């Protein structure tokens, strides 16, 4: 007989891991399938690795998202101090910057009100110490604090926490099909040469950029959501930053681009490029790499060229359809409808807010599960990550 669970989660990225942790903490039996060999090898190892409120989302008035992410940042600094560190970030403002010093000041003041962490203006006399930052035309440099993590390690840690609470993670396991009838879904997955099956009362589709492909494997077929895949590239160059991170305004299109310390060097990103192929084919386009090199060369005295790029990687954001990528909502969307009420699909979201997302999804999912005696209820807000 097939193993049977309350909840089957497709995808062991940060959102799948967060849902598994939240569900297991509530005492549900949970299984997670991922087609890769470890958690977090999809989008969740291709992010900018920031645990942040997202200062730039204030420009598009996504206050609720910023507030939620800053609250989650605070929890992660407490519950995962080995994985999330607060680092200084610098915002240089030049004569020709579109965002003027007063606007940056205002944004940081709001960020301060939402987070309780302050900011300061770096005195002119100290600009020379800022990692070779170009000072020609420089008007002001602001310093504030935000979080950095290793996104793949964080995802593994959240999945481990879910497993400690009783969830099961099955790697190298690709969902092939799922057939749902009232009260139960039968799923078939491929693991190596074998096709295996299991059953669950509810399916959570947390397959990141693959969400709509996963929906097509489920019967009755739930409608696909209108979404775009937007590619984000990062490059890594040799070197190190002594004073912290930098938050630049790209001269080409005024988007915000980060220059960050990363294990093997300096990481620069990201881009927002329309993507229309299969998520399995994601790769950093040459034009994105050149764009990031140009941003760095505009702001730092030491110029780099294509041969300095040691590594480049790209991930896919799932964004609601329409408008320019920079200003579209980064909020999570949970889809569930009458065609197949046992299937919940998670679109978009932030690495930073995975815990809140998991909680939100499980609160929706609960309504589809029969009343039960809870064996376990753990408060994941205060649960230390392994
Ligand atoms: C360029 C970029 C930068 C970002 N920077 C930040 C940042 O600095 N801070 C922040 O908070 N957020 C950031 N984000 C957002 C964040 O990284 C993503 O929202 C998050 O990683 C998405 O996680 P996920 O679990 O939804 O998707 P994924 O990590 O892609 O996980 C989906 C999983 O589903 C699995 N899967 C797919 N199909 C199947 C199948 N048929 N069977 C089994 N498994 C399957 C895949 O193997 C994959 O592991 C960034 C995003 C991008 C693209």
Overview of the structural elements:
The protein is α/β, with parallel strands linked by helices and 386 residues long. It has 2 domains: 3-43 and 152-224 and 332-382, FAD/NAD(P)-binding domain, CATH 3.50.50.60; 65-148 and 228-327, D-Amino Acid Oxidase, subunit A, domain 2 (D-Amino Acid Oxidase, Chain A, domain 2). Helix content is 23%, strand content 32%. It has 7 helices and 19 strands. Helix 1 (14-25) runs parallel beside helix 4 and helix 1 packs across helix 7 (354-365). The model has no long low-confidence stretch (mean pLDDT 93). Bound molecules: flavin-adenine dinucleotide (FAD). Flavin-adenine dinucleotide (FAD) binds next to helix 1, strand 8 and strand 17.
Strand content: 25-35%
Number of strands: 19
Mean pLDDT: 93
Low-pLDDT runs of 5+ residues are none
CATH first level of the largest domain: Alpha Beta
The CA-CA distance between the termini, in Å, is: 34 Å
Count of individual domains: 2
Please name the CATH topology of the largest domain: D-Amino Acid Oxidase, Chain A, domain 2
CATH architecture descriptor text of the largest domain: 2-Layer Sandwich
Number of helices: 7
């Amino acid at each position: 007989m097939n193993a049977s669970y309350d909840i089957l989660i497709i995808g062991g990225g940060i959102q799948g891991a967060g849902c598994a942790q939240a569900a297991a903490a509530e005492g549900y039996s949970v299984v997670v399938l991922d087609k890769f060999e470890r958690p977090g090898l999809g989008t969740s190892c291709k992010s900018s690795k920031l645990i942040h409120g997202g200062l730039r989302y204030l420009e598009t008035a996504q206050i609720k998202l910023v507030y939620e992410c800053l609250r989650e940042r605070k929890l992660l600094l407490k519950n995962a101090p080995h994985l999330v560190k607060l680092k200084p970030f610098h915002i240089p403002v030049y004569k020709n910057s579109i965002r003027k010093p007063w606007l940056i000041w205002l944004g940081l003041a709001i960020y301060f009100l939402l987070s309780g962490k302050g900011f300061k203006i770096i005195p002119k006399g100290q600009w020379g110490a800022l990692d070779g930052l170009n000072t020609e035309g420089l008007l002001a440099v602001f310093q504030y604090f935000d979080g950095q993590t290793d996104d793949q390690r964080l995802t593994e840690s959240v999945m481990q926490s879910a497993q400690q609470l009783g969830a099961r993670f099955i790697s190298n396991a690709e969902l092939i099909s799922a057939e749902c009838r009232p009260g139960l879904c039968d799923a078939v997955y491929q693991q190596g040469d074998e096709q295996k099956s299991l059953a669950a009362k509810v399916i959570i589709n947390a397959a990141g950029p693959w969400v709509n492909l996963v929906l097509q494997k489920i019967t009755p077929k739930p409608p696909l959501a209108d979404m775009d895949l937007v590619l984000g590239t990062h490059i890594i160059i040799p070197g190190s930053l002594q004073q912290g991170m930098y938050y630049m305004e790209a001269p080409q299109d005024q988007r915000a681009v980060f220059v960050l310390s990363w294990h093997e060097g300096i990481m620069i990103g990201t881009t927002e490029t329309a993507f229309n192929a299969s998520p399995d084919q994601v790769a950093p386009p040459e034009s994105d790499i050149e764009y990031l090199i140009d941003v760095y060369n505009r702001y730092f005295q030491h110029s780099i060229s294509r041969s300095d790029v040691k590594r480049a990687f790209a991930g896919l954001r799932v964004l609601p359809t329409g408008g320019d990528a920079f200003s579209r909502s980064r909020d999570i969307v949970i889809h569930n409808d009458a065609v197949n009420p046992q299937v919940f699909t998670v679109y978009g979201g932030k690495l930073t807010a995975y815990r809140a997302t998991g909680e939100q999804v499980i609160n929706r999912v609960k309504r589809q599960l029969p009343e039960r005696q809870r064996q376990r209820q753990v408060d994941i807000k205060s649960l230390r990550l392994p």
